[in-house]
Amino acid sequence: MPSRLIAKKYLFRQIYRGSGYAYANDPEFMHVSKDPKFWDQIGERFWEKYSYIDRTHKMWADRVMRGQTLVGPLGREWVVPMKTSWRGEVQVPWTTLSNYPVQGTGADVMMIARISLHRRIKAAQIPAIPILTVHDSIVYDTPDEHVDQVVNLFHQVFDDLIPNIKKLFGYEWVVPLECETKIGPRISEMKEVLRTDK
């Protein structure tokens, strides 16, 4: 899916306040335009459309410039020091500033999911071993005869995730949090499997 990867690259660079120069000199975008001003205008239109994110980033930048911490919706705090350019100019660290709250809050949500899943698997006395977590993926190893049970528990965890965020942190989460489950002997051989409890 090259178009998805290019779209993702465009979006991440834009959110991290990439310059028009970066797009104009990137082989994956040069066929559209090699003019940095063209890409700067695209960026301006992006931030006009997503003005709430723009305002939030600028509010965070003000806090960072005053030496204050950023505070996420679930209470986690981040110290984001200013950076210095190769010219010695003090600059807002846009990439770090826009990344920490997103990745950190995502990690908090996945922590709730992991703990909830572990407790449910333990209560059900299922022989399942946690292997690892990568970003928004939780990997467990379990015998074939328990796969359906574990899949159902994964989905039940995500059914309850938003109410658990509210209970634990008092935060009204408004974005849907859904679960997708896959099984397989290795990552290159995964296939989606649906819950059987609904």
Account of the protein in words:
- The protein has two domains: 100 residues, DNA polymerase, domain 1 (Orthogonal Bundle); 89 residues, 2-Layer Sandwich (Alpha-Beta Plaits).
- It has a two-stranded antiparallel sheet with strand order 1-2. Strands 3-4 form a two-stranded antiparallel sheet. A two-stranded antiparallel sheet has the order 5-6.
- Helix 3 packs across helix 4.
- It contains seven helices and eight strands; from the N terminus they run ααααββββαββααββ.
- By secondary structure, it is mainly alpha-helical.
- The chain starts with a helix and ends in a 6-residue tail after the last strand.
Report the structural category: mainly alpha
CATH topology name of the largest domain: DNA polymerase, domain 1
Radius of gyration: 21 Å
Task: Indicate the CATH architecture of the largest domain.
Answer: Orthogonal Bundle
The largest pleated sheet is described as: 2 strands, antiparallel
Shape: globular
Biggest sheet strand order reads 1-2
**What is the domain tally?**
2
Helix content: 40-55%
Low-confidence stretches: none
Strand content: 5-15%
The first-level CATH class name of the largest domain: Mainly Alpha
Short description:
With about 200 residues, the chain is mostly helical.
Task: Describe how the helices and strands are arranged.
Elements: H1 2-15, H2 20-24, H3 36-49, H4 51-65, E1 70-71, E2 77-78, E3 83-84, E4 90-91, H5 94-123, E5 129-134, E6 137-141, H6 147-159, H7 161-169, E7 182-183, E8 191-192
Antiparallel strand pairs: 1-2, 3-4, 5-6, 7-8
Helix pairs in contact: 3-4, 5-6
